[in-house]
User: Fold this.
Amino acid sequence: MKSGILGTNTSAHLLANANSRFVSVQCGKCSKIGSIRIDQYRRKKAYWECRSCAFSGRVSHRKGEGVKNDPNRIGSYKSYSKAKQRCKINHKGVYKDIEFRFNSFDEWFAELGPRPEGMSVDRIDPRGHYEPGNVRWATHKQQCRNRTNNHLVVYNGVTMCLKDAAKAAGIHRSTLERRLNSGCPEDLLFTKQRWRYKNGKLAEPENINTEP
Assistant:
């Protein structure tokens, strides 16, 4: 189909703004009506295609190549880019001494593989660098328990953060925090006996009245 200016009288088909010199035209493929400047129309030699038809005929030589078009690697690549950017701009002022030591995304992907759903990259040693051997995929809960400002304690021979230890011992977290702040030794931290904060000693067991 040959497209052209609608009608034979060009001046009759100028749009409302005569100074803009736009004309109504018809797509040469789908017959869609559009508008185009007269100089562009003449440059196209009286043939015009709408945007949809013009792009549908193009063949993308990049599609299917590269990381961004690979659903198996795109998640890992986003984490790679963000981690690299955090070190570059010193995100929130806490990455001053943290270095990004991966030389390429291929090295990163070989270390971590695809990013699992609901996980993001985490440094195993939170004071260490982004480097091979110190990165992993972790959930939000795991990352919250692997922060540098967490207080780690030993409960039943297992090192864990204060929140997990309080849950395992059946003691409220705020109780453990007060005991630590008042100088309570860690061997008495999880005792059920009351800890006196003022003098830093265990309270004496209360006398139980056994009279009938």
